[in-house]
Automatic annotation (TrEMBL):
Regions crossing the membrane: 7-26, 32-49, 54-75, 87-105, 110-127, 133-153
Source taxonomy: Bacteria, Bacillati, Actinomycetota, Actinomycetes, Kitasatosporales
Name under which the protein is recorded: histidine kinase
Pfam families: HATPase_c (PF02518), HisKA_3 (PF07730)
Gene3D superfamilies in alphabetical order: 1.20.5.1930, Histidine kinase-like ATPase, C-terminal domain
Length: 402
C-alpha cells in the first residue's frame, strides 16, 4: 500500500517536471507539439487520479494552462489556425473530469466541472481572437460535455450493477430461508406425527399390554433419534465455514441426506403408526441427482404424514416410476380425502398449526426442479399426490477409436 502511494506521488512529480520541460525546454516548438506532449504526460497522473481526483484535476489544469500560456515564438504564429494545437492539453483535463463525475460525490463533480470549464474558457478567451475564439470555445464545451456524459453513463452502469448484485444476494437469502423452512417442516412434521400416534397408543395399552406399549416406546425412541440427527445435520450445514465440511464440532460424521433409498425405513415407521404402505417401483432404477432424490423422498414423506394424520385409513400406495426423462412419484390412499373446513388432507398440517405448509412446500420443491405437481381428492374417494421431476440428460463419454 505504501509503495503504491509513493509511486502515485512520484508520477505526479514527474508530470510537473515533464510540463516544465515542455514549456521551458522547447519554446520554439509548435503549439501542437506542446499540446500532444502535455496530453501524453498526463498519463503520469493515473496514480494521483485514483487517490486524490480533485488534486489530479488541479495538477492537470495547471499543466495544460502552463502549456498554453508559456510557449512563445512559433506557438504565437499558429493563431491563424482554426484551432490552436496547445489546447489539446485540455483533453487530459476533460478525461479527469469524466472520471470524477463517474466516481465522486455529486458536489465534488459539480465543483470539478465548473472549475475546469471556467479555467478553460478564460484561457481560450485570452489566447484566441476573432473566429478562432468561437471555434475553440465550442470545442471546449463539447469536449467537457462529452466527458460529463461518459462519466454519468459509467456511474449509472456501476450503480445498476451494484443494485443487481444486492437483489441477487437478497433473493439467494430468501431462497435459502425457504429451503430450510421446507426441510424442517417436512422432517419435523412427519416425526412429530409418528411420535404423537405412538405415544397415544402406548398410553392406552401400557397397563393391559405392556409388550405393545414397549414397542411403541421403542418406535418413539428411534423416530426421535432420526429427527435429532436430521436437525443436527441441518444446523451444522448452516454453521459450516466452508462448503464441503462434513463433520460437526465434536468430529463425528454426519449422516447423508435421505433419498429414495430410505423409502423402506420410512415405510416401516409409517407402518408402526398404523398405516400400511405398499411400494411399487417401475422402470430401471438409476442414480439420481441429489436434489431430485431428496425432493422425491420429502414429497413421499409429507404425503405419508398426511395419510397418517388426516386420511383415516389403514393403507396407501406409493408408486415410483424411473423414466428416461423424468422421475414420477405418486402417493394414493382411499381415505376421507378433503374435509369441508378447508383443512384438507393434502394441506400437510403435520404440526397442527393450520398453516397449510405441507402442500406449499411440496409445490415449491417441484417448481424449483421445473417439474409438475398435483394434489387433490380422487373421484372414487381418497386422495392423490403426484409429482413429476425432470431428470438431466446423461452425459455421453466418447470412445476413442483404436
Amino acid at each position: 500500500m505504501t509503495r503504491t502511494k509513493t509511486m502515485a506521488w512520484v508520477g505526479g512529480a514527474l508530470y510537473l517536471l515533464a510540463v516544465g520541460l515542455l514549456v521551458g525546454g522547447a519554446p520554439r516548438a509548435s503549439g501542437t507539439v506542446h499540446g500532444v506532449g502535455a496530453l501524453l504526460a498526463a498519463s503520469l497522473l493515473v496514480g494521483v487520479v485514483r487517490r486524490a481526483p480533485l488534486l489530479a484535476l488541479a495538477m492537470a489544469l495547471f499543466g495544460a494552462t502552463a502549456v498554453v500560456v508559456g510557449p512563445t515564438g512559433s506557438a504565437r504564429a499558429s493563431l491563424s489556425a482554426s484551432y490552436q494545437g496547445e489546447f489539446l492539453s485540455y483533453l487530459a483535463v476533460d478525461l479527469v473530469v469524466g472520471l470524477i463525475v463517474a466516481t465522486c460525490a455529486r458536489r465534488a463533480s459539480i465543483v470539478a466541472v465548473a472549475g475546469s470549464l471556467i479555467v478553460q474558457l478564460l484561457v481560450i478567451s485570452g489566447f484566441s481572437h476573432g473566429d478562432n475564439l468561437t471555434v475553440n470555445v465550442v470545442i471546449a464545451l463539447l469536449a467537457t460535455a462529452a466527458a460529463c456524459m461518459g462519466g454519468l453513463l459509467s456511474r449509472e452502469r456501476r450503480e445498476h450493477a451494484v443494485a443487481l448484485r444486492s437483489q441477487e444476494v437478497a433473493e439467494a437469502v430468501i431462497a435459502e430461508r425457504l429451503r430450510i423452512a421446507r426441510e424442517l417442516h417436512d422432517m419435523v412434521a412427519h416425526s412429530i406425527g409418528i411420535i404423537a400416534i405412538q405415544a397415544g397408543a402406548a398410553s392406552q395399552v401400557i397397563r393391559t399390554r405392556p409388550t405393545e406399549a414397549g414397542e411403541a416406546l421403542r418406535a418413539i425412541e428411534v423416530t426421535s433419534r432420526e429427527t435429532l440427527s436430521g436437525l443436527r445435520r441441518t444446523l451444522v450445514a448452516l454453521r459450516q465455514a466452508e462448503p464441503g465440511e462434513a463433520a460437526s464440532g465434536n468430529g463425528t460424521a454426519l449422516a447423508p441426506s435421505p433419498g429414495l433409498a430410505d423409502i423402506d425405513r420410512l415405510v416401516a415407521a409409517t407402518a408402526d403408526a398404523g398405516v400400511r404402505v405398499d411400494v411399487h417401483r417401475s422402470g430401471e432404477e438409476q442414480a439420481l441427482p441429489a436434489d431430485v432424490d431428496l425432493s422425491a423422498f420429502r414429497i413421499v414423506q409429507e404425503a405419508l404424514t398426511n395419510v397418517v394424520r388426516h386420511a383415516g385409513t389403514g393403507r396407501c400406495r406409493v408408486l415410483i416410476d424411473y423414466g428416461d426423462e423424468e422421475l414420477s412419484v405418486e402417493v394414493v390412499d382411499d381415505g376421507r380425502g378433503a374435509t369441508g373446513n378447508g383443512a384438507d388432507h393434502g394441506l400437510g398440517l403435520g404440526l397442527g398449526l393450520g398453516l397449510g405448509l405441507g402442500l406449499v412446500g411440496m409445490r415449491e420443491r417441484v417448481a424449483l426442479l421445473y417439474g409438475d405437481f398435483s394434489a387433490g381428492p380422487r373421484p372414487e374417494g381418497g386422495f392423490r399426490v403426484t409429482a413429476r421431476l425432470p431428470l438431466p440428460e446423461p452425459v455421453g463419454v466418447p470412445v476413442e477409436a483404436r
